[in-house]
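Extended Data, panel c. Modelled sequence:
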Amino acid sequence: MANKKGNVLAIAIMFFLFAMISFVTGLQNPFGIIVKSQFGASNFLSQLGNAANFIAYAVMGLPAGFILSKKGYKFTALASVLVGFIGVGITFLSGVVESFGVYLLGAFISGFSMCMLNTVVNPMLNTLGGGGNKGNQLIQFGGSCNSLAATICPVLVGYLIGDAMNARISDANPALYIAMGIFALAFVIILFSKIPEPELAEAAKEAPEKTADTIKGALSFRHFVFGAIAIFLYVGVEVGIPNFMNLYMTSSAVGIAAGVAGTIVGMYWFLMLCGRLIGASIGGKVSSRAMMVSVSSLAILLLVLGMVLGDSAQVPFPAFKDLHFSLETIPIGVVFFVLCGLCTSVMWGAIFNLAVEGLGKYTAIASGLFMVMVCGGGILPLIQGAVADATSYLMSYLVVIAGVVYILWFALFGSKIKKAK
């Protein structure tokens, strides 16, 4: 009974950390609008903060995996929360000194924290759920907390920005205060909580392996390698859809206010929340592969419709304006992009679940390698930004479609468990 109660508390803490990951990462979406206004950045440069946040994963992914395997969940979580507080604090400082470089540094250090937290929460939830469909189910519930925070972030910062043409980093200070407060509270809660360490217990029973051998062991599973590539593309897809939706709506060609655009972007994340709740409720009965095939196929259809229809028609859409609910007129293509939130909602958990299946003792280092590939969330939007500068916002979604096509292939063929010869 005591162990069961401990597991419930551990699951609750992981859900809490999942929400933190999304809130801090989500700050880079509306900050893209801010740096375009404050520093005159192009679409490509507006994504550098997002890129710095995600490229930190490439630097910290493997070290985070090793820290987890050597020091355990609690130590890794405490270290990541502390680093996160420092990163957000530097972002706040960038508004004081009005420096684009300091802003990028804050985003980069925050990325270290998000990487370490991701390294903790995903394998622990999968382990606490017993792996398989149940493990995927717990990850989907955690992802629901992630989506709730992602829904709140663009709405809050969009409201704080106000006029997109005159936005400043200092306008977002209340959101930064909230983020730092969340980190401080999380540190105290984790410090005084007892968290089970199943990976440490398993590792203690076996002779330690050399770092190179551990990495080689994980990479010997071809379905894991294909899954790591899928995660690289998925995170770029998840981030690119709302980021460029926001830039498109607040551009002079469309002219939607930042606060209103933020609530519409928030609807994308809200649909991710709904999708993850649905995924969590059926995750014990429906396989991860079936989920992936369904949602990736639908996502391709929605993205193509969004690109083709674009601004060919204007439709009413629910939003908040000046803290009041209203129906705002938006391009019909944006509606289809928003609906993609239902599709991207379950992809992370399903890809992770399929990719680490059967890895056993290599699960911890595999999680670290996974985190390295999360840098796709910074690289794909940069490519999308370059395409948008060269063509248009709508044409830039070709980058996103290409990513989803690969994810569909992984679900159909690449996820079959097979160890490389």
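The first strand starts at residue 314 and ends at 321. This feature is highlighted in the accompanying rendering.
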